[in-house]
Amino acid sequence: MTNGTNAGRRMIAGLAIAAMAGAAGAGMMWAGVGAAMAHDDHHQHAESYAAGEPGQARKPARLIEIVMAEGDGKMMYEPARLEIKKGEQVKFVLRNRGELLHEIVLGTAQENLEHGEEMKKHSDMPHGDLPNAKHIEPGKSGELLWKFTKAGVFEYACLIPGHREAGMVGTIVVK
Ligand SMILES: [Cu+2]
What we know:
five-stranded mixed β-sheet, 175 residues
């Protein structure tokens, strides 16, 4: 009898754990869907890109290295100015030599300013997954492939709150 009761209790405990795991799993799935939706919402305005279009990995690309760094109360890209031919595909090799997380977002100055304002309101929203943006962890490097299909003056900026203001912005002239 006692054994039977214990077995029963164990079974109930087991079921409770299974139910909790199920609920946690569903919750995580739901949170994932929510995050994806919020992300889409946030970036709807960026579906077409002012500075060109995402690059194609199989096509040749000009290699441009950009170093991200901070120091003396400033944050910067090196170099901070690029000249690119219209139609040129560029593979940016991004090296974060600083101690903070940095990113690069390609766009017009106007877009980046607006985007930066949104980032201040929703600082929990990373946009490292967007085709025109890339996050780089301190001490790490990464790549961004981009085709500059339109002539004009664009910029690359770090839209993590405070970084663009501290100098983390570069100019791209496409002609
Ligand atoms: Cu930054």
